Amino acid sequence: MTTKSLIVCFGEMLIDFVPDTAGVSLAESHGFLKAPGGAPANVACAITKLGGSSAFIGKFQEESKLKEHLPQVSLSLCLTYSLDKALLLKRRIIDCSTTHAGRGRRVWADAGKHLKKNGVNSEGVRFDQQARTALAFVTLKHNGEREFMFYRNPSADMLLKESELDIKMIKQASIFHYGSISLISDPCRSAHMAAMKAAKEAGVLLSYDPNVRLPLWPSAQAARDGIKSIWNQADFIKVSDDEVEFLTQKDPQKEDVVMSLWHDQLKLLVITDGGKGCRYFTKSFKGKVDGFTVKTIDTTGAGDAFVGALLVSIAKNPSIMQDEAKLKEALTFANACGAIATTQKGAIPALPTMSDAQALIAQSKAK
């Protein structure tokens, strides 16, 4: 994998708390599975799991101690639940987050170790000794779909400064990938804009997956405005059907609605629709690629697995965006990766390997 095949992912890495039982509220869950997550970090790990080359740029607390965060977690939970339910939920979070390493201290796993474990270049990671690593509490419905509650304000990822960017790494990339959460507030927003500018000036392909998380924005309109503020700079955009509906406030199945999101800079626009597959739009052609039928347990990270797989294909051969047959192959591969990611709980732990995806595709063809 050459340097110019490097895909740099910018943004947040957090800790996901996923209930061990689907179909119940956070307060009603008997326990949680704790796993690293955050869309840009998920994409970075998805890329390396598939044999690609990725790097992550972001910020988090180096060794975040659970006991330092419990009072704030309790307050956040009390704003959502009654006191007794909040205390019960807090106790369950403590139980699932306890590790007995060395002297038996309760600590969060160092998020950076998860990047290194998955082969992601973490030279662009910066640390904050005060701010916490963000937490996401995920409620799983019976169909595997999710609802979120975040504990983040402020978290270390929000405090990344422009002066802390690894500009050299960004300019060496073939693709610079990002979401919208890093646009919510400064100083991270300014760092995000500076990173995009450096990438664009170096001829790096800009990849954008808004990954809408409304609870993190001041309002729905602020989210729309923030997400659209950088829309026209991206070369590749992936959005879900639900996100198209949110951004346009119209029917996402209508082609004219989708095309209202098109801009002249864009080379490829992909609209995902869960297990149904995806639609693609380029300057020269458009179409649909069917998804795969799997037993869905948790959809967390499915979109990130899809994006990671597609970016691996584009990094290897950017011309696929002008070749419909090759693009459909790449999207079939991406659909397979997204489907496999739903068959386990958690985002990064569920990411597939190349052989996993190839096996699912072969199995589907054999039917």
From TrEMBL:
A Pfam family assignment: PfkB
InterPro entries for the chain: Carboh/pur_kinase_PfkB_CS, PfkB_Carbo_kinase, PfkB_dom, Ribokinase-like
GO BP terms in the entry: fructose metabolic process
Domain of life (superkingdom): Eukaryota
Kinase in keyword set: yes
GO molecular function: ATP binding; fructokinase activity
Reactions mediated catalytically: D-fructose + ATP = D-fructose 6-phosphate + ADP + H(+)
EC number(s) from the headed UniProt entry: 2.7.1.4
Pathway the protein contributes to: Glycan biosynthesis; starch biosynthesis
Top enzyme category: transferase
Annotated keywords: ATP-binding, Carbohydrate metabolism, Kinase, Nucleotide-binding, Transferase
Domain called Carbohydrate kinase PfkB: residue spans: 5-63, 113-353
GO cellular component, as recorded: cytosol
PANTHER family on file: FRUCTOKINASE-5-RELATED (PTHR43085:SF6), HEXOKINASE FAMILY MEMBER (PTHR43085)
Function comment: May play an important role in maintaining the flux of carbon towards starch formation.
Protein family: Belongs to the carbohydrate kinase PfkB family.
Name listed for the protein in its UniProt record: fructokinase
Native source species: Sesamum radiatum (Black benniseed)
Organism taxonomic ancestry: Eukaryota, Viridiplantae, Streptophyta, Embryophyta, Tracheophyta
